[in-house]
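Re: weekly structure request thread

Next one in the queue (145 aa):
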Amino acid sequence: MASRRDWLLQQLGITQWTLRRPGVLLGEVAVSVPPNVRLLVVAQDLPDHHDPLFCDVLRSLDLTPAQTYGLTPDQVVMLPEDTECNSWRLGVVEPLAVAGAQLYSPALAELSQDAGAKRALWQQICHHEQHFYPDNGRSGHSLQD
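Done, posted below.
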């Protein structure tokens, strides 16, 4: 049911707009991905860049911690709509509205104790390897060429 104000505005032919991200007016700042970033790391509790497992996963992706950008799920919604970057969701089940390959694993503490979750993460990395290793020689050339 529309309010009297809404009804009056409609009768006057005035279009009303609805904010998609009202938090921006409350002082939240839009987030942008730095140009050197190749992987968004999304988690409620962001991993320490010196964590051995975190570094091992990055090494398997041929990345350094400096090429990652850590965000909480609340910050991800503040990214511009046209953001394109590969991502790794740690304990964040809901897919991101960001273009690019998306990896999922449990939070890092749980991942470190679960061999099955590590295996599943590795399978995802292999499945999306063309996104992480674009110059991997997959064009039909062998290593001997």
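Confidence is low (pLDDT under 50) at residues 137-145. Residues 88 and 145 are 34 Å apart (CA to CA).
Next request, please.
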